Amino acid sequence: MGLVFGAILLFWLFMSVLVRYAGRRSEATDMAEAGPQETARGEEEELRQRAALAAVSAALALASEEGPKPFPLPPTALVSTWQAVMRSRQLGERGQVR
Fold first, then answer.
1. How far is residue 75's CA from residue 77's CA, in Å, rounded to a whole number?
2. How far apart are CA 96 and CA 98, in angstroms?
3. CB distance 31 to 39 below 8 Å
4. How far is CA 92 from CA 43, 78, 88, 89, in A?
5. DSSP string covering the chain, please?
């Protein structure tokens, strides 16, 4: 079992290092290639996309909201009618419990 957790840990470390270094290089090259005006336009466009995404997700959440759901009925008893009658008869024969 230790080998499984060790392999998971190695994959996790590999992925975190890969994401960290790959993300930094792509941002640096994008900034170097784009001028200051293009960078401002890109940020503005990204903010608009995020706002649109937030509006759509909020609208979908409100549309999918339903009223309170009814409480589910309990599962049926696994006791037949005959067994229930016989058990209640036995309880009645005992009398009151202190």
1. 6
2. 6
3. yes
4. 79, 21, 6, 5
5. -HHHHHHHHHHHHHHHHHHHHHHHHHHHHHHHHS-HHHHHHHHHHHHHHHHHHHHHHHHHHHHH--SPPPPPPPPPPSS-HHHHHHHHHHHHHH----
Tokens of residue 98, six digits: 């202190």
pLDDT tens track for 38-82: 667 778 888 999 999 999 988 888 777 766 677 777 677 677 788
Asked if 55 contacts 63 with a C-beta cutoff of 8 angstroms, the reply is: no
CA angle 80, 74, 81 (to 5 degrees): 10
What's the rounded Cα separation, in Å, for the pair 87 and 91?
6
> Taking the model in full, what pTM does it have?
0.31
